[in-house]
Amino acid sequence: MVRPRIGQGVVVDVPATTANIGPGFDCLGAALDLGNRFELRVIEGSGERFDLIIQGSEGSHLRGGPDNLVYRSAQRVWREAGEEPVALEAKVLLAVPPARGLGSSATAIVAGLIGANALVGEPLNPEKLLELAIDIEGHPDNVVPSLVGGLCMTARTASERWRVLRCDWDPAVKAVVAIPAIRLSTSEARRAMPRSIPIPDAVVNLGAITLLLQGLRTGRGELIADGLHDRIHEPYRWGLIQGGRAVRQAALAAGAWGCVISGAGPTLLALAPASLAAAVSLAMVAAWEAEGVASNGRVLDLQLAGSRWQALPDATSGGVDG
């Protein structure tokens, strides 16, 4: 381990994610080619100081301080590594809007973990970082693909160990996201769900996720369409998303195989063939506009690389940290 110097910094690029993807509640997620960039630099001050600078049209409500999610995640790394905390400044180029169901909080967690680990010489291995990320987030479906990229199914084994499977995604399948101007917190979306799920509903989801994964692997639209059905979380959440059902119908009418809530929402995810993806995006945006909600439509590919970091030039010496 190395003690980070004042002026030393790293930049961490973290992809957005779409989680659940219909029947994969809290266990299935995919990294998308949209992301946040975090520049973390050691500054003067106590181990409780965290300065936050947001660059972008979103996130003006986010604040620094010791309770910030990036800094809390960094503190976990230093505690695990037996290292004293340091003061940090974070400049965040925010492209993943908060509270929209695209894993914004997961990007903060992952950036804090990876950045803090890099600043002290990477004493924690990737498996430990993944374990910490899941523990901080509380569920794996966003943080795992944020870390490792791709389409990930994550399960806790009988021995309480986390097991991650990277699943295939045919590049002909496009992810179309319609991101509304409204926000929905994960905690609010979770409160809408019942405390228990009927066994028949759980069985439907088990079958649906099998069809969905096979459809994504092969690009077979009919399997994707049959697999994008959920009875665990979506029936209880659609009512929280203004105009959501109308947008879903517009996506299907434009040729999408299916349309589901991305994460906890309110962003909606449609899966569509490449030839129809742009039309699906336009239809979703138009449907939301008709409901009085401004939105941004994007056609995205799977991001396979996961999160990456590199050193920043030393702010005090002008050199480059290795």
List keywords for this structure.
322 residues, alpha+beta, seven-stranded mixed sheet
Describe the structure.
The protein is α+β, with helices and mostly antiparallel strands and 322 residues long. It is built from ten helices and eleven strands. Strands 1, 2, 3, 4, 5, 6 and 11 form a seven-stranded mixed sheet that branches. A hairpin with a 6-residue loop joins strand 8 (258-261) and strand 9 (268-273). Helix 1 packs parallel to helix 2 and helix 2 runs antiparallel to helix 3. The longest helix is centred in the middle third of the chain and has 20 residues, at 199-218. The chain starts with 8 loop residues before the first strand and ends in a 10-residue tail after the last strand.
Tell me briefly what this model is.
By secondary structure, this protein is of the alpha+beta class. 34% of the residues lie in helices and 25% in strands. The strands form two sheets. Strands 1, 2, 3, 4, 5, 6 and 11 form a seven-stranded mixed beta sheet that branches.
Uncertain spans, ≥5 residues at pLDDT below 50?
318-322
Distance between the termini: 13 Å
Percent helix among the residues? 25-40%
**What is the multimeric organization of the chains shown?**
single chain
Number of helices: 10
Q: Could you tell me the number of beta strands?
A: 11
> Secondary-structure element sequence?
EEEHEHHHEEEHHHHHEEHEE
The major pleated sheet works out as:
7 strands, mixed
Briefly note the structural class of the backbone: alpha+beta
- Please give the radius of gyration in angstroms: 20 Å
